[in-house]
């Protein structure tokens, strides 16, 4: 949680361009919180090494103690079984000294083993309790000291963080905002920074649309090019127009030849009539 808060404060301080004291205060606060988180990580590591690690050893210690207790109970049951055998031998065959003596010797062995096992169990129990009390006292003392060290450092750093928050000059930031000027900035730059994101987006969209329109105008063909392309694409229409003009020219020349032939015939007839009259 502390790391996320530090990251958020740092990002906010980097993006803050108007309120300079707020930006500086948040940046210093993020550094202080980072130091607190480092002390917290050290606290966790020390607890794992000095407290948790020692407590984890008691799993094996308790397992060994249970095995010793189980062995003692088995020896105790063996002693009771030997005692029952001796009692039965005395009841059934009280005059069979050999069997009774054998049962008594087995009972003595079981009793000796039981006393020896009980003594060992008593010693182990005492050692276990003494070790448990001493280590528990040491572990709790280490835990308290580690927590006190961390919290003392945390209180010290939190005091610094509190002072950093108090150092934020909100009046100066508001005055700079009302005047429209930040440190060593022109009014135009300040107004440009205060533009709303929507306006910036709209200007970006208009610039993109204008550049796209210019690009489309460059790529779109002109009227002359389209006319030439149409002429190139329709050769049949051009050939048809040429054939029509050629036919009109031929008709005009043929009509002109007919007029010339008719005029020559009329002149020949006039000449013949004049010859006959002269005769």
Low confidence ranges:
196-205, 218-224, 232-242
The CATH topology of the largest domain comes to Substrate Binding Domain Of Dnak, Chain:A, Domain 2
Q: How much β-strand is present in the residues?
A: under 5%
Task: Give the overall pLDDT as a whole number.
Answer: 73
- CATH architecture tag of the largest domain: Up-down Bundle
In DSSP terms (H or I, runs of 4 or more residues), the helix count works out at 9
What would CATH call the homologous superfamily of the largest domain? Arfaptin homology (AH) domain/BAR domain
The string of secondary-structure elements, in order, is: HHHHHHHHH
Present the secondary structure layout.
Elements: H1 2-15, H2 20-56, H3 58-92, H4 97-166, H5 170-179, H6 187-193, H7 197-219, H8 223-233, H9 235-278
Helix pairs in contact: 1-2, 2-4, 3-4
Describe it:
With 279 residues, the chain is mostly helical. 90% of the residues lie in helices and 0% in strands. The protein folds into 3 domains: 2-179, Up-down Bundle (Substrate Binding Domain Of Dnak, Chain:A, Domain 2); 187-218; 234-278. The chain has helices at 2-15, 20-56, 58-92, 97-166, 170-179, 187-193, 197-219, 223-233, 235-278. The longest helix is centred in the middle third of the chain and has 70 residues, at 97-166. The model is unreliable at 196-205, 218-224 and 232-242 (pLDDT under 50).
